[in-house]
Amino acid sequence: MPAKPINVRVMTMDAELEFAIQPNTTGKQLFDQVVKTIGLREIWFFGLLYVDSKGLSTWLKLNKKVMSQDVKKETPLQFKFRAKYYAESVAEELIQEITVRMFYLQVKDAILTDEVYCPPETSVLLASYACQAKYGDASKETQPPGYLSKDRLLPQRVFDQHTLSMEQWEERITNWYTEHKGMPREEAMMEYLKIAEDLEMYGVNYFEIKNKKGTNLFLGVDALGVNVYEVTDKLNPKIGFPWSEIRNISFHDKKFVIKPIEKKAPDFSFYAPRLRINKRILALCMGNHELYLRRRKADTIEVQQMKAQAKEEKLEIDANRTRLNREREAREKAERQKDELQLKIEMMESEFNKMQGALQNSQDTVNRLEDQFIESERHSQELEEERRLLEERRREAESTAIHEKEEKHRLEQEAEEARRAIMQKEEEMREAAEERRMLNEELQQARIKQEEAATEMLRLSQLPREAREPERTPNGGPTTIEIQMTGDEDAYLPRPEETRVTVVDKNERMMQQLKTLSIELSSQKDQTRMTRTDQIHYDNVRQGRDKYKTLKQIRMGNTKLRVDQFEGM
Fold it and tell me: Which of 189, 218, 315, 545 is the most exposed place for a label (fewest CB within 10 A)?
């Protein structure tokens, strides 16, 4: 009778996968199923994490059967697919887009949950890259005020320590977000990681340990080596050993021993609270050490092929992006030209309407002046008729003057009055003629303006009334284990991390923006909510210290000196 399949659920950072395995399925077989499903090839960074029967998070051993390990018995069995080992330089080591996304989501979650300490001003900068990775380019049309209210972008500690409202945080994030216009989403994730890997707690696994004196300390294991921290300060290690200085590692029960490559140096030994902690330290040391040596040697054929393929894909993506950008710019230019032409047409139509109004006013003026001219002609004729009648009366009066002296005298008076009246009428006629002449000139000028307005209106009426649409572009094992680590041939491998410069220090403008924002936020900070880690960070800033300068400092001196320093803590 065939064995009953066992249901398994694997949670990646952005998906939930379901599998059915057999009782004899190994950890590697399950792991291979996961990476094949999500299409991931850079498998050396990742592992499967589970919660054991004691409630502790443990990495699944790939060389053992899944069911033989202390996985909490539930249906389905629960696993998390996570990065187990961190890259020393994400820009140089992470090849596939899926690998970048897995790292980005895991690191972002660690920062937001304060598993990795990030100062407030850097949290805002990282949030802007997270927006670019999620939404693409900023857009006022599709991203109204409040669009970030439901996004988890800053650690809760940052909100709690400042008096700013969500709208004010959104404004500060958006100020940086708008500067990332045109940046592809995968590039935004990479920029996020490049800044995050400069944080002191990035990629460090901390373990509680004690030295021979019984002093409580932290051991930090990361991509560059092992470091010792005081329990009150996880940012600044006090002693450090790069992987190239470690010959082998071993443990016996709760005691863990690191043998230096320097033969005369004493062993570096410490005590963990439980045997299983030493097993986990050993596994992380082995994996990180292997990757440390691998980075400092020529790439394997597989990695070379992956890099070549990634380079080809990037060139193709860049070419497509360039083409799409050109097409977008052409569309935007055509839209601008259309808008400009439409505005010009609207202005011409407005001018056309004004000209029509002016033409109508001119026509009204012509009609009024013609009426006045006709009235003036009629009045002139009436005056001429009156003058004629008066002249006849004068002649009649003169012809009858011989009949009677008194009548003559009377008629002379009437004649004189008639002459005066005639002179008055002649003056009125001269005035009327002058008025008629002036009206005639105004009439001629009005007719000229009318012809000019009619010509302009004809010209405007022949222009296109709508812009032509621009052409669109289509588109339990043994309690004692010893592992050989570094051989003599690898003892002097280069250690570029000791002279490394942070991304912010390389970018003067970014550095200045972070300083300005830090000063601005300090005025809004509730000092009573400052943590010890905050204070340590600001002390580091004042002293000009960073992750890599500290690393160089704690590795100074010979191995014996550092071991003695550890024992004296």
Answer: 315
Nearest to 206 by CA among 196, 221, 216, 193: 221
Pairing of strands 6-11, 16-21: antiparallel
The CA dihedral of 241, 245, 250, 252, to the nearest 10 degrees, is: -50
Long-range contacts of 305-308 (CB under 8 A, 24+ apart): 306/41, 306/42, 306/95, 306/96, 307/95
Q: What's the distance, CA 410 to chain centroid?
A: 112
The answer to whether the CB of 89 falls within 8 A of the CB of 197 is yes
- Tens of pLDDT, residue by residue over 26-69, are 999 999 999 999 999 999 999 999 998 888 889 999 999 999 99
**CA 289 – CA 442 distance, rounded (Å):** 103
Nearest CA among 258, 154, 269 for reference residue 213: 269
CA distance 193 to 136: 17
Residue 386: burial class (beta carbons within 10 Å; 0-12, 13-18, 19+): middle
| CA–CA distance, 415 with 394 (Å, rounded to integer) | 5
Q: How far is 300 from 323, CA to CA, in rounded Å?
A: 34
Q: Does position 473 have pLDDT exceeding 50, yes or no?
A: no
Distances (CA, A) of 343 to 330, 331, 456, 469: 20, 18, 20, 14
Omega cis (within 30) before 76: yes
pTM for this structure?
A: 0.74
Q: Tokens standing for 533?
A: 């880690």
Mean pLDDT over residues 407-433, rounded?
A: 77
